[in-house]
Amino acid sequence: QLQLEESGGGLVQPGGSLRLSCKVSGSRLDHANIAWFHQAPGKEREAVSCITSSGLKTKYADSVKGRFTISRDDAKNTVDLQMNSLQHEDTGVYYCAGRHTSFNFCNPNVTWYAHWGQGTQVTVSS
C-alpha cells in the first residue's frame, strides 16, 4: 500500500520559492501516478501537478504553468514540487496523492487517487 509524506512547506514572501517533497513508501514510483493538490482556505482541493508512473508525462494546472515544476527521484522514491514566483493565491495546504497504475495519463480528479499524505502548509505573505 502506498504511503506518502509531504515536507517542505513554510512561510514565504510573494515572489519567493519553496520546494515541496513527497516521500513515497510501499511502492516503487514506476508503479504509481503521483500528484500534488492544493487546498486554499475555504475552497476545494484542486490538482496542481502530476507525473505518471512511466515518468514520461507531467501535467500542470493553468494557474501554475511556468512557475511550478514536478520532478521524480527514483533512487530516493520522492516526488518534488519546485514552486517559484509564489503568489498570495498559492497559500494553502499542499497534498501529495498517489495511485497504483500503469495508466499513462494524469488524472486531475481528487476521487481517483486512493492514497494521500497528511499535507504541508504553504503561506505566501509579506
List the helices and strands and how they pair.
Elements: E1 3-7, E2 10-12, E3 18-25, E4 32-39, E5 45-51, E6 58-60, E7 68-73, E8 78-83, E9 92-100, E10 115-116, E11 120-124
Parallel strand pairs: 2-11
Antiparallel strand pairs: 1-3, 3-8, 4-5, 4-9, 5-6, 7-8, 9-10, 9-11
Strand content: over 45%
Helix content: under 10%
Report how far apart the termini are: 40 Å
Average per-residue pLDDT, rounded, comes to 96
Question: Could you characterize the architecture of this molecule?
Answer:
The chain is an all-beta fold and 126 residues long. It is 0% helix and 49% strand. The chain is built from no helices and 11 strands. Strands 2, 4, 5, 6, 9, 10 and 11 form a 7-stranded mixed sheet that branches. Strands 1-3-8-7 form a 4-stranded antiparallel sheet, with no helix packed on it. A hairpin with a 5-residue loop joins strand 4 and strand 5. It is globular, with a radius of gyration of 13 Å. The chain starts with a strand and ends with a strand.
